[in-house]
Design a protein that fits this description.
The complex is a heterodimer of chains A (628) and B (229). Chain A has 4 domains: 146 residues, Jelly Rolls, CATH 2.60.120; 112 residues, CBS-domain; 180 residues, 2-Layer Sandwich (Beta Polymerase, domain 2); 132 residues. Chain A starts with a helix and ends in a 7-residue tail after the last helix. In chain A, a hairpin with a 5-residue loop joins strand 4 and strand 5. In chain A, helix 4 crosses helix 5 and helix 5 packs antiparallel against helix 6. The radius of gyration of chain A is 28 Å and the shape is globular. The longest helix of chain A is centred in the middle third of the chain and has 27 residues. With 628 residues, chain A is of the alpha+beta class. Chain A has 24 helices and 20 strands. With 229 residues, chain B is α/β, with parallel strands linked by helices. Chain B has one domain: Ribonuclease H-like superfamily/Ribonuclease H (Nucleotidyltransferase, domain 5, 2-Layer Sandwich). Helix content of chain B is 39%, strand content 18%. A 5-stranded mixed beta sheet of chain B has the order 3-2-1-6-7, with helices on both faces. A two-stranded antiparallel sheet of chain B has the order 4-5. In chain B, helix 2 packs parallel to helix 3 and helix 5 runs parallel beside helix 7. The radius of gyration of chain B is 18 Å and the shape is globular. The chains are: A alpha+beta (628), B alpha/beta (229). Strand 1 of chain A pairs antiparallel with strand 3 of chain B, so a sheet runs across the interface.
Chain lengths: 628, 229
């Protein structure tokens, strides 16, 4: 006989995140301690500065408006929305005022009933943190990083560390340590104190550099050459997490201890090699395979495998910046391989004489392409008085390469912005002239060209040619202030949908009627703003939108909070688009609102937050008040 | 007639209880008279419902009782009651009371245990129910069968309150059919789920009651005394 009262609450909350992320019995347990709160219309639930009770809320019925001090509405919560979660994460007063917009019923969840599950279910924390980010700056960004270091994403792949660890003590000599390593055939050894707590590490690289090639004698103590402290981790981390920790710390070995700190007993060591062995479609292995390919179909198979890898990363909630980095690396390798194959076919000797550089443009140029989208590329070459056919040679190569890329699954660019198009395959001088023309008489088309072209990244060939172009652009900008103003105007052309909870803004006409254009409405405004601000700062060499925001946050500490939020928002958007694209088998650009779950809609809404603020900032900075 | 026989029978069976059974004495000792002038917001209400074998007040029996407490426009789920009564010989005494909430076993608990828990839960609250007179009668019948007496609490009927809201001077003139729990659910957009289980109906009644109270409040009625006069 079920208790209908608890079931009424359970049936409701189980449908909404974060409760969707918890097992049923846990949700039932939480439901049994809920307080149902009725609030008439226009009633204040809490005010800015109030100390929160140990509760947070989910709207069962009605609407709650969250206001800032000046009375402006930050958010509207309706059925199924969670709010007032401050007491879960920090012990601090409310930052917003909550008021009912209409007669409402709230379910108040006791923090005590919920807190025990925060650590146990990392997705819950991640959800709450992203929810918390609304109106609270860069909280989520910080949270995400701390999750990595505290190893909270503990699912799917785990590494077995149940081998008894090999270690030596501080009073042992380097020679003894080296012998232990040789005997156990291991590439590193941990130095422990008497309680078997790790103090430092010696790798075979240390032995090679410091002992064999250096001037430290083998009879000296291990402490002389050990690296300290050792990066320690708890057991049970996923492959992806381990990779990230190694990448972040630029190390190849991690010590596993009882609680993940250096103050508990050593359980074992995980090396990068262990990870490679564990991983079938490891990116490093994919890249090695790419280098062996000789025809496009082989490359296509690898790119398909990469898609699989992306899917796995997405499922494991690996940080987007890490995934884009890896995928960008793989894309670059594929392009490079295609160019080498084309060179071989057309005569490698001839192309060795030509000084040229292959440029990736658009999303690939920004290193943000997770799923295969259209090709955007260009070629720049150095004129050679001894070769009058140089343009034809380059075009011939470009035609071969773009055709191969097409075969691999990168569609031809519908606007023909490809290196195979004579106007996108030019000498350094011609490119400089083109840029000068664009910047001096910037019409709508020219500005559009700039937005695509200015995200270029050298992928193959002589990178100095690309740098040359960048220098030219910067010098043009120094003389032509009005150009950035026009770019600013362009960046404001797509205002973000501010409220889309009740009425999701969707395309009104055409093929994608009733779907949400995540690229145009959410990603482009962020990309455009980042490019503009980076150009204004004359920062070169950073193309990735999130990384641009991180660099901008450093350059503008005053706006750091907003810029970090934007970095975070962009990653969330890439993730949403990728997850959607993997599901629909296309680029994921058009999303049907109804296929998104509550959590994705929340994330999407959160991602809009910084767009509006960024656009305001741009309006002020580039004095666009009167122009728009 | 049958009722009297049962009563006598039980009276004989419970010879040791000369006055009242323990649960009822406890109830009476703890009972404090309501201050009907206290603002509605601060009053404690016990909203309840019973599920019976039928609608015959004489013959039918209570199968289950559900109750929630409403105070300061809130209900604490942990402070609710959901009990199933077993009228068979087999009785499960192991049903545990956790935070005032009774986890019921499939078989239910004895009528004595049930009525005792209910009186304990009600305490000195104002009792609220939909067509509450029937449920109160059934509870009294059960109570006296178990050696207890009637409830002393003020009672409110949500059906009457809704009528009174619509027709303050002559609420009884309104059509009863328009004031069923289902009709009120429709009117106040309360999801009528798990109807006809005692706890399900208690929950729904409580939500309707909360919304009714707000309608009275908006008419300037802030005391129970004004509501029932």
């Amino acid at each position: 006989m079920k208790n209908e009262i608890i079931h009424r609450v359970f049936d409701f909350i189980k449908e909404y995140p974060p409760f969707t992320l918890l097992p049923k019995d846990v949700v039932m347990e939480i439901a049994s301690t809920v307080i149902v709160k009725y609030l008439p219309a226009d009633t204040v639930l809490f005010r800015i500065g109030d100390m929160p009770p140990p509760l947070f809320y989910i709207v069962n019925e009605g609407a709650i408006y969250l206001h800032q001090e000046d009375g402006s509405m930050v958010d509207q919560c309706d059925e199924g929305d969670v709010f007032g979660i401050r007491p879960l994460l920090v012990h601090a007063p409310y930052l917003l005022t909550a008021k009912t917009g209409e007669e409402s019923i709230l379910y108040a969840i006791k923090t005590d009933s919920f807190l025990p599950y925060l650590d146990k279910y990392p997705k819950v924390l991640s959800f709450l943190a992203s929810n918390f980010a609304v109106g609270n700056g860069n909280m989520f960004y910080k949270k995400q990083n701390s999750q990595i270091s505290s190893g909270l994403f503990s699912e799917i792949i785990t590494i077995d560390t149940d081998r008894s660890p090999v270690f030596c003590k501080v009073n042992q000599t380097i020679q003894e340590a080296a012998m232990l390593m040789a005997r156990h055939q291991i590439g590193s050894i941990i130095i422990c104190d008497d309680d078997q707590e790790p103090l430092g590490i010696i790798t075979d690289k240390d032995l090679r550099i410091k002992v064999v090639a250096g001037n430290i004698r083998k009879k000296e103590l291990v402490t002389r050459i050990m690296s300290s402290p050792v990066i320690c981790i708890p057991s049970g981390l996923t492959l992806a997490e381990l990779q990230i920790i190694m990448l972040k710390n630029k190390i190849n070995h991690l010590a596993v201890t009882v609680d993940g700190t250096p103050h508990t007993q050593l359980l074992g060591v995980i090396s990068e090699h262990d990870l490679v062995v564990q991983q079938a479609d490891n990116p490093a292995i994919l890249i090695k395979e790419i280098r062996k390919c000789i025809i496009a179909t082989q490359l296509k198979a690898i790119r398909d495998k990469t898609e699989h890898l992306i899917k796995k990363y997405m499922e494991q909630e690996v940080s987007v910046s890490f995934v884009t980095q890896i995928v960008s690396e793989i894309n670059d390798e594929i392009i490079q391989r295609c160019i080498r194959i084309a060179e071989q076919e057309l005569g490698a000797a001839k192309y060795q004489q030509i000084k040229y550089c292959w440029l990736a443009l658009g999303s690939e140029g920004r290193g943000e392409q997770l799923l295969r989208t259209d090709q955007d590329n260009a070629l720049v070459y150095q004129d050679d008085p001894n070769n009058s056919n140089i343009k034809e040679d380059c075009l011939l190569l470009a035609q071969k390469v773009t055709a191969m890329l097409h075969e691999i699954g990168y569609e031809y660019c519908p606007a023909d912005m490809m290196a195979s198009n004579p106007s996108w395959c030019q000498s350094v001088e011609d490119w400089q002239n083109t840029f000068t023309k664009w910047v001096h008489s910037p019409g709508e088309k020219e500005i559009m060209m700039c937005t695509i072209f200015f995200d270029y990244r050298p992928v193959y060939g002589d990178h100095s040619l690309a740098q040359n172009l960048t220098q030219h652009i910067f010098s043009l900008l120094d003389k032509q202030d009005v150009f950035l103003h026009l770019m600013a105007k362009n960046a404001l052309e797509n205002p973000p949908p501010l409220s889309f909870f009740r009425n999701f803004i969707v395309e009104k006409n055409g093929e994608h009627k009733d779907s949400f254009d995540i690229k145009l409405r959410a990603m482009m405004p962020l990309v455009d703003a980042a490019r503009l601000l980076i150009l204004a700062h004359r920062i070169s060499g950073i193309n990735n939108t999130s990384k641009r925001y991180l660099a901008l946050a450093e350059a503008e500490p005053n706006n750091a909070e907003l810029l970090l939020m934007a970095a975070d928002a962009y990653e969330i958007l890439i993730r949403l688009r990728t997850i959607h694209g993997l599901k629909t088998g296309d680029s994921g650009r058009y999303i049907q609102p109804e296929v998104m779950d509550k959590m994705q809609r929340l994330q999407l809404r959160n991602a809009f937050q910084p767009i509006d603020e960024l656009q305001k900032l741009i309006k002020v900075r580039f004095q666009l008040g009167g122009m728009i | 007639m049958i009722w009297n026989t049962i009563k006598q029978h039980l009276g004989l069976a419970n010879k040791q209880n000369i006055n009242h059974s323990d649960f009822y004495s406890t109830y009476l000792n703890r009972f404090t008279k309501h201050d009907v002038q206290k603002p509605i917001y601060d009053q404690s209400f016990c909203v309840f419902d019973t599920e019976t074998t039928g609608l015959d007040m004489a013959k039918d029996k209570i199968l289950s009782i559900g109750a929630v407490r409403v105070c300061q426009q809130s209900m604490d789920i942990a402070d609710s009651l959901s009990i199933v009564i077993s009228h068979e010989g087999e009785q499960d005494e192991s049903a545990a009371v956790i935070h005032g909430l009774v986890k019921t076993a499939e078989q239910g608990i004895t009528p004595e245990k049930a009525v005792s828990l209910f009186y304990q839960f009600v305490g000195s609250d104002i009792i609220v129910g939909h067509h509450v007179a029937f449920d109160i009668h059934m509870i009294h019948k059960l109570s006296s069968a178990c050696g207890g007496g009637p409830l002393k609490n003020v009672t409110l009927d949500t059906a009457f309150l809704a009528k009174r809201l619509d027709h303050p001077t002559d609420p009884h003139s309104l059509d009863r059919k328009e004031y069923t729990l289902d009709k009120l659910c429709q009117r106040f957009s309360v999801l009528p789920k798990a109807r006809h289980t005692a706890d399900g109906d208690a929950w729904i009644t409580a939500l309707v009651f909360l919304k009714l109270l707000d309608r009275f409040e908006r008419k300037g009625i802030r005391r129970v005394g004004q509501m029932v006069k």
